[in-house]
Each structure stands twice: as structure tokens, then as C-alpha cells.
Amino acid sequence: MTVFAVEYVYDAESAEVRDANRPAHRAWLASLAEQGTLLASGPYADGAGALLLLEAADESELNATLKEDPFAAVRGIAGIRTSEWNPVIGMLSAHAS
To answer: Would the pLDDT of 97 be above 80?
Structure first.
């Protein structure tokens, strides 16, 4: 499995829709964590976005997973940047490819 760093970018106009859908979004994240797919996630302190660390076989599988996010369904995400990430030191190093 490959670890991906996924950066969500939010815009101010989507704050209300994100607030309304946050419980479903967090339930989706919790289910991914239970499956072992989500390693960590959380919003940036300034509210401009969030960082998710996920495991997937490849980018195609990652994109399919991200499409299931309730925030994606309501257009609560202005942009997404994904990068393969290799955690070689620290708590997540067991997930290095």
C-alpha cells in the first residue's frame, strides 16, 4: 500500500455547507480509520483546509475513496492536492512503502 498526503483547500463561501455536512464527513473519516485506510486527518488551524493521510493501492483507488467524502458530494472542497508520501521516521514509519 502507498501512503498519500491529501490536502483539501476550502473557500469561505463553502463554510456553511461544510458546517451542515461536517457530522457526515467525520463519520466517513471515522469509518476509513476503522478500516485502516485513514492514518490521520484534521483541519488546518486557520480553517483554510485540511490534511488527510490515507493508504491506497494506487492513485485511482485513492480518488475513488475521496469521491465518497460527503464534503465532495456537496462541493465543500475548493481544491485537492495529492502526493505520494513516504513516512520514514516517526509513528507512521511502519506504513513506509
So the answer is: no
How does 63-95 read in b/e, with b if 16+ C-beta sit within 10 Å? eebbeebbbbeeebbeeeebeebebeeeebeeb
DSSP code for 36: T
pLDDT on residue 96: 78
CA distances from 66 to 71, 83, 90 (A): 9, 14, 26
- The per-residue pLDDT for range 12-51, each reduced to its tens digit, is 899 999 999 999 999 999 999 999 999 999 999 999 999 9
